[in-house]
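Dig into my protein:

:::
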Amino acid sequence: MFRFTTEVKGLAIDFDSFEEPIESWNEIVNDFNCLFITTVPESKENIENALYAKTLLIERTPRNFIPNPAIQTKVLQSLNIQESELAYVSADSVFISNALTFYSCVIYVSDKLLRYEEFPRLPDLMCDNLLKVEEFLNNRLVNYLGEEYFSQDKDGPSTAVIPLLEIQCDGEKLLLIFLGRYYGSKTYMSHLHPYSRILFLNKKADGKAFRVYDEAFARLLSAMVRVYLKDFSDCICSVPVRENEVERFDYIVEKIAQENDLENINSNFVVKRAHGAQKILNYVERQENVKNAFAFEGNLQGKKIILIDDIITTGATLKECSRALKNAGAEEVYLLVLGVNQKEIEYGTANQPRVCCPKCGMPMKLFANSSNRSLFYSCRECGVLSGYEKEKAKLLTQINQEFTKVSEMDNEENFDIML
């Protein structure tokens, strides 16, 4: 599921980030309306002569300033599309991070296993190579299974290609598999992103939707275990909960264990030292907070363990749990989470998008019906309710109109577009 894009009608390609020969772009140029962004005059000439494609030549600028609102405006004007119809394509993580400040789709291309620490904000799509970009877009494939499953988009993709991340722990690399991105409840994106809201509501102990989605999560996680981890694993457990907290993964862990012939070792994985909540702590404080907080009571010599948690933010808790399991003899620990917490984004336009009440104009919040699982918006001020799909359509119109105002500015300086 893309954040705001429902249909990709044009590609803005960060040409300088790719090492592939120019002819590698032939198929993509034939299938899509493309604009190549480059700082190199020779590259501009080669693209125009070899691919007969549109180009955008910009001045040599530090990578951390590309793309910016001026470039975004020129891209939309050249491709003659709206912001929600555009996809940026790049092999550079800095460019990707900048592109995510707009509402357009963002596609990262790399054949390397991504390091979790390098991506505080994950792109909408990750592909191994240019052929995969074409395949994903033509067949409407997605990366985030959880986001797609709960998107309520009846016409959306039905197949997800799961991305894998690696996370550093004591000089070793841990494999991290996840269902989707998570935008925290304090960020405005949480009420625009169904999967994030469902994760939040499902773990809110005093809410009507508490654990309503456990069965769905168990089914999705079990499928991922079956495809990626079953043949390499012996046992499964979740992060132990603190004293007086509800164990929310007991059903999910047991369900996965039964369906994949794994040993459920949850009862032996315990908290040995009281520690506070991680939510308000920074990275260093989180590490200290959970240091030596967990222990496994038993022998895991040579075993390969799947460790489950809901949200990963800094990875401090999962790393400490991994240490405890390895101290008990575990040979490998694989991390499986529902969501990867996303760093807050400062968007390129002045106004952050939000769904507002049609009656009083106040921001509305996204909720889930605990009976039929449908999503709806509710206004706390006046009680107005509205369906998710209806408000999503209005939001996309708002987003496109917002940047249309920006695009009316004169940004001719320092740009050279070949149409």
